[in-house]
Specification:
20 strands, mainly beta, Jelly Rolls
Length: 318
């Protein structure tokens, strides 16, 4: 049974899981005043995760200390809603702090992921902040082919095959499994993705890892996964309030004026990302830029205390 104090339920807030990365930095401390564990470069903060080795733990309230997996396994219908299947919570939510270029990589499509020993991974990126001129690398340039790409791996000219985009803060792009991609230096990105951690690196700019050794590449798996008909995509154009919609998630952009209320529009949970402004729960808990939480299906509405911009992520109804 759910704790009495959780009815109506408050937002579920989790302790971030910080990940060091050779391309990371200190933006999470500088921009969000987060206390990072040490002085190393932190490239990822896993905000909501139900991975076996990376479990999000509730940070406060009646469920404090419980893992997301415990809630999903034992209180699925009460917290999340009906008709939700799967052994694990189906999404993984991150902040990415890219101070250097990430590797050029690809995630395996679901049709071939089992053959490669991995999990499919479709995701979307929301540009929270970026340096002037910062570039994303997405898809192939016109004129590229499987053969020319294979040759570029041998002579180190992979970058000449990959399409570059210069976005601005507030833009977003959908990265389906099979789409070649890399985040360039100078981005703070909110990433919403399937619950998968399978990434195949095809080129890493001849860079060494934090241990001083070259990072592993996955050439064979990458070549099997890349969509070689994906040429020069642009940043996505919102369809009304919808930024991304697929079989795994729907991401909507919500604008609130001070005093307006936020709630779940259906009988299921949602994940809230605060992009700008501030919203407040009935108990007085304040959420500001860079905060993430799960809004349970029967949560009381939240109130905007200032003009606010949010992302609200849903699991599509069957």
């Amino acid at each position: 049974m759910l704790p009495q104090a959780a009815n109506p339920m408050e937002p579920l807030v989790f302790t971030p899981i910080y990940q060091t990365r050779v391309w990371g930095g200190r933006t999470l401390a500088e921009s969000y005043q987060r206390p990072l564990p040490d002085s190393q470069p932190y490239g990822e903060s896993w905000e909501i995760s139900d991975r076996e080795a990376e479990q999000s733990l509730v940070s406060e309230g009646p469920f404090a200390g419980k893992s997301l997996h415990e809630l999903w396994s034992n209180h699925r219908e009460e917290i999340f809603g009906k008709n939700l299947s799967g052994e694990r919570f189906p999404l993984l939510i991150k902040i990415l702090d890219a101070r250097d270029d990430l590797s050029i990589q690809v995630h395996p499509p679901k049709e071939i992921a089992p053959q490669l020993g991995g999990d499919p991974k479709t995701e979307m990126w929301y540009i929270a902040a970026c340096d002037p001129g910062a570039k994303l690398y997405v898809g192939l340039k016109h004129g590229s082919s499987r053969e020319s790409f294979q040759a570029s791996l041998s002579n180190g000219s992979v970058a000449s095959q990959v399409h570059a985009i210069t976005p601005k803060a507030g833009d977003s792009i959908f990265i389906a499994s099979g789409r070649l991609h890399a985040i360039g230096a100078g981005f703070l990105i909110y990433e919403i993705q399937q619950n998968s951690d399978t990434t195949y690196r095809v080129f890493d700019w001849n860079r060494m890892g934090l241990d001083g050794k070259a990072r592993d590449l996955h050439i064979e798996e990458s070549m099997a996964s890349i969509d070689f008909d994906d040429f020069e995509p642009g940043m996505d154009q919102p369809q009304g309030n919808t930024l991304a919609s697929c079989e795994y998630f729907v991401v909507e952009q919500v604008h609130l004026q001070a005093g307006q209320l936020l709630k779940n529009p259906n009988d299921r949970f949602s994940i809230i990302t605060v992009v700008a402004g501030e919203i407040t729960s009935p108990s007085g808990r304040h959420f500001q830029k860079g905060d993430f939480f799960i809004l349970p299906k029967h949560a009381a509405p939240l109130s905007a205390t200032a003009q606010s911009k949010l992302l609200q992520t849903f699991i599509p109804s069957p």
